[in-house]
Write a structure and sequence with these properties.
Layout: E1 2-5, H1 8-11, H2 14-22, E2 38-44, E3 51-57, E4 60-66, E5 72-74, E6 79-83, E7 91-95, E8 105-109, E9 114-118, E10 122-123, E11 129-140, E12 160-171, E13 177-183, E14 189-191, E15 197-203, E16 208-214, E17 221-226, E18 228-233, E19 238-242, E20 251-254, E21 259-262, E22 303-307, E23 310-314, E24 317-321, E25 325-326, E26 332-335, H3 337-340, E27 345-351, E28 354-360, E29 365-368, E30 373-376, E31 379-383, H4 384-389, E32 394-398
Parallel strand pairs: 9-22
Antiparallel strand pairs: 1-22, 2-3, 3-4, 4-5, 6-7, 7-8, 8-9, 10-11, 11-12, 12-13, 14-15, 15-16, 16-17, 18-19, 19-20, 20-21, 23-24, 23-32, 25-26, 26-31, 27-28, 28-29, 30-31
Length: about 400
């Protein structure tokens, strides 16, 4: 669901306060006219034809752009810099103050002239899926070597803390977000030519890396082999990898032939194509006119839009959720924070060397620990069934 505010002064009202608190010069407090500045070309939006530049002048930074009609303008104060790295067609931005919602990314949509807060997923080559890897920390019991998920009842802040990563898959047609895997090691991946996902994760059983092939439509995961990926050539459908041997010799698996062999000399170039363009071949980037009066430029009437992940209808009222997902256990997990903002209360109670969270919904209390909830960094997620167990009517609807 998309929510847009249209009064720019309201949208960026917090920028000046935040800048003062952090020691940054707000973009509204312009340096003296004629002061030297640096302007870096960022990108040209293919949809609008607008050309964007990051401008640095003294301690301030802001964004200037040229419209398709040749008019020069500025983006509103508070948008300090742009990057063109987003694969969604929305340019990443640096703004202050940052948005408080977990996993919300900020980007600028030139076509809509909006700052968009949303959760960024890396798209699959066919555009049907989005992938997000979230690192987090959680307690585990080294005495029994428990690292699997879901875990037994280990209290929050008890035991040893370890870093983990979880992989989340978004169905771009329905908006549903599902958890695919959890590992104590980094999980690189490649989308294969047939649309399946090849994921590298650490096998707790074999104590080495394994490659798992996942069908995104069903979530079915099967071990492909024990080994570590080094590259993938999508055009030829070839995988470069090594197995757990002292020499770590490079091997190639041909998905079309279904066979594996040692890599020959020079074949690694198939997996690391030359992307660097020589300086002579690079076109001259656009630049700002030397006589451009930066302080006289009109400011765009940019709005802000929030693209939420889901809506939970709770006892007849809609609650917007910035993030939610279906876990490996098949349970839907929703963030607690939006409900606390609506009047639910939460307290900590000591238990077994750590603590549990006790949540009062107004109809009863829920006791949260690792058996029925998960703490992803600074947010607590609980199973939706717990809310229903107290008699609440709760229906989760995914948003596209």
């Amino acid at each position: 669901m998309k929510w847009r505010k249209t009064i720019t002064a309201v949208l960026f009202a917090g920028a000046l306060t935040s800048a003062a608190c952090t020691g940054l010069t707000p973009t509204g407090a312009h340096a003296a006219a004629g002061e030297p500045y640096q302007a870096d070309y960022v990108y040209t939006d293919s949809r609008t034809g607008e050309v964007f530049f990051n401008v640095y002048r003294g301690a301030e930074s802001f964004v200037v752009f040229r419209t398709a009609d040749g008019e020069w303008m500025r983006l509103p104060d508070g948008i300090a810099r742009l990057w063109s790295g987003s694969e969604s067609g929305c340019a990443f931005l640096f703004a202050y103050p940052p948005h408080p919602e977990q996993y919300f990314n900020a980007c600028y949509d030139a076509e809509a002239d909006e700052v968009v807060y949303h959760t960024e997923f890396a798209p699959s080559p066919n555009g049907k899926w989005g992938l997000k890897i979230v690192p987090y920390y959680e307690p585990f019991d080294p005495a029994n070597g428990q690292t699997s998920y879901p875990g037994s009842i280990i209290r929050y802040t008890s035991r040893t803390i370890q870093k983990k990563e979880t992989v989340l898959l978004r169905n771009n047609a329905t908006g549903e977000i599902r958890q695919l895997a959890v590992s104590t090691n980094a999980m690189p991946y490649y989308w294969l030519a047939d649309g399946t996902l090849l994921l590298q994760k650490f096998s707790e059983t074999d104590r080495q890396n394994e490659l798992v092939r996942i069908n995104p439509a069903t979530g079915e995961a099967k071990r492909f082999m024990l080994g570590s990926m080094r590259g993938y050539n999508a055009e030829r459908n070839l995988l470069l990898y090594v197995i757990n041997e002292p020499e770590r010799r490079l091997r190639i698996y041909d998905f079309r032939a279904g066979k594996s062999r040692l890599a020959k000399e020079g074949e690694t170039e198939l997996f690391y194509p030359e992307t660097e363009v020589s300086r002579e071949e690079r076109p001259e980037p656009p630049s700002l006119p030397e006589d451009l009066d930066l302080d006289a430029l009109p400011v765009a009437d940019t709005g802000i839009r929030h693209d939420y992940a889901a809506v939970l209808t709770l006892d007849g009222a809609d609650v917007q959720l910035p993030f939610a997902y279906v876990g490996l256990d098949g349970e839907a997990y929703v963030p607690l924070k939006p409900f606390v903002a609506r009047g639910w209360t939460m307290r900590q109670e000591s238990s077994d060397g750590g603590h549990e969270y006790v949540v009062d919904t107004g109809r009863g209390e829920l006791r949260l620990n690792r058996a029925n909830s998960i703490s992803l960094n600074d947010r607590l997620y609980l199973q939706l069934r717990l809310i229903r167990s107290l008699g609440h009517e709760a229906e989760l609807r995914w948003l596209r």
